Amino acid sequence: GQQLNQSPQSMFIQEGEDVSMNCTSSSIFNTWLWYKQDPGEGPVLLIALYKAGELTSNGRLTAQFGITRKDSFLNISASIPSDVGIYFCAGHNYGQNFVFGPGTRLSVLP
Amino acid sequence: EPEVTQTPSHQVTQMGQEVILRCVPISNHLYFYWYRQILGQKVEFLVSFYNNEISEKSEIFDDQFSVERPDGSNFTLKIRSTKLEDSAMYFCASTQESSYNSPLHFGNGTRLTVT
Question: What phi and psi, each to the nearest 5 degrees, are found at residue B42?
Answer without folding.
Answer: -80, 165
